[in-house]
TrEMBL record:
Phylogenetic classification of the source organism: Bacteria, Pseudomonadati, Bacteroidota, Sphingobacteriia, Sphingobacteriales
Keywords carried by this UniProt record: Coiled coil, Membrane, Signal, Transmembrane, Transmembrane helix
Alphabetized Pfam families for the sequence: 7TMR-DISM_7TM, 7TMR-DISMED2
Positions of transmembrane segments: 182-204, 211-237, 249-267, 279-298, 304-323, 335-356, 362-383
Name of the protein described by the UniProt record: Chromosome partitioning protein ParA
Coiled coil: 415-474
Span of the signal peptide: 1-19
InterPro entries from the UniProt entry: 7TMR_DISM_rcpt_extracell_dom1, 7TMR_DISM_rcpt_extracell_dom2
Residue ranges occupied by any 7TM-DISM receptor extracellular domain in the UniProt entry: 38-166, 181-385
Amino acid sequence: MTKYLFIFYLSLWALNSRAQNILRVDKSVQQHKFTLNEVKYLQDSTGKLTFRDIQEMSSSFTENSSYYPSNHYKNSAYWFRVRMYFSEPVNNNSIIELFDQTTDEVTAYMPDATGNYIKSESGASLNFNSRLFHHKNFEFQIGDTKPGYHTYYFRIKSHNAVNVIIVYRTIDYFIHYALNEYLTYGLFYGMILIFCFHNLLMFLAVKKKQYLYYVFYILSVGLYEMSADGIAFQYLWPGAPTLNNYGNGTALYFTSICALIFSKELLQVKTKAPQFNRLINYVLLLRTTYFLYCLIFNNSLFVYKFVEVIPLSLAFATGVYIYKNGYKPARFFVLAYSILFVGFIVKALTALGYTYFLPAPISYYSLSFCFIIEMVLLSFAIGDQVRILRKEKDAAHEETIRQMRLNSQLKDSINEELERQVEIRTHELVEKSNEVRQQSQIIENQNKELLRANEQLEKQAGEILRMNVLLEKDNVQLKTNIEKVTESRALSTELGYEEFSAKYPDQETCFKFLSALKWKDGFICTRCSNTTYCAGRLPHSRRCTKCSYEESALHNTIFQNSRIPINKAFYLTYLIYSTNGTISSHQLSEKLDIRQSTCWTYAIRIKKVLQEKKKSRKKNDQQGWTVLVM
């Protein structure tokens, strides 16, 4: 009876063995991926089955129906089994490699030369230094193995949905493959750094915020790719495997946020599509809320990467809408996101096992290739926007030059009219002067007649003489008063800038005038009170011969520390004085061709001095605008 039972179990084992394809390995096999019925699996819903239990449940393994097996139930542990036949001994020159770097726990049971199984552990939940090789994937070395049939078991436990890709490789092929792979990574991340550095320099040069947002977006993409590839775990946080639970989700969040903010700035969404701008703001708020909830309460929700389709689709739709409305820089933006969507589709199909017919570099690195193309196209979009802005700026500059030319022509015509009016007025004044001269001649003749009449009135000569003396004194006083009134009126009359500049044409004349005005009562050194001086280094400055202190003509005047030309400062002071401070800063700006804010600042200072001088000067003080200087 025992013999028959043994034959029955042996038959079942043989049938079960025939159901699973066996990889036959010889020297010609450098690499092989286990797919379809080459892999069998067993779901451990309790997670407590031991390797001994699994060996006893060999008949319970199920054939794999998909191209690559996966853990459909994330709370369960999965056991996978592959079988190989070695035609010759294996002397530590081969490995079995598992992909998907987000897998939490990978435990391998590898038979040795005696048929006993050796347990090896790896996974994203262990420190990176615990791995057999310092490589982003999980490698388990096939030890000394005799020719014949051998079965290998792998226990997978992960909170993410992962594709269990099991690959046999020789050590030589693994080294070749790893070197090429890391060279590709170096080129990819090197391009990211170059793009970041270039756009950072552009931001520093032109101060356009879209360059800075683009740098943040590229860095976020780089962090996501490093987290997805396992490069971040290898180089950034090898001793903190807990961060693997947050790396992908955090990088994807910043990628979405930076992509939306960059899209808003590049496409000028706020002004060109206000409805999309509000929608983007809502998505930013909701995506941030979802990220904070995952980060604080349940980081396992980070595995739902499909939520990134919403912000990226919104950015793509916004670009299409704005491009249809005639904004040309959006064309490269739309093309870039179209290619990025193709990359996402290929990546999703790869995760579902539908792209097995494609070459491995295309299926596994499609998203990275599309990211590179997207970065190039987005750089073109930024450059296109800058080119259009420069073109608009040049057009505005040409319009400004044309307007200035028209203003110059109008100014010339006004000057010609003024010259004609001045000529007419001068002619009138000459004629009136001749009339006055003739009247003066008549008066002189009459005076002669009066003198002859006075000779006849000898008796009244003394009295008339005394009266003439008194009249002469009155005439002198009257003449003096007339001159003062004339000077006062001249000081209060508003002269044009050209007429005023004729009197104070340059800095030399202004400094000479200030020097004479400042030291009209003699030089006194402000430090040692010495009264002797010599010429200083600056124009019309004076240097004390005793203490060598040099004092400029501007020192202790209202023009000290002035940042506008001195002759314009003279005219500004004159205008405020002549208008009694009523002239506005806008009028001053038009007359002096100086910014209104600068005119306003200087006008406040001069008006303050004007008010102080009004209180301190006498009623009949006729010093004019120069009273404000000292």
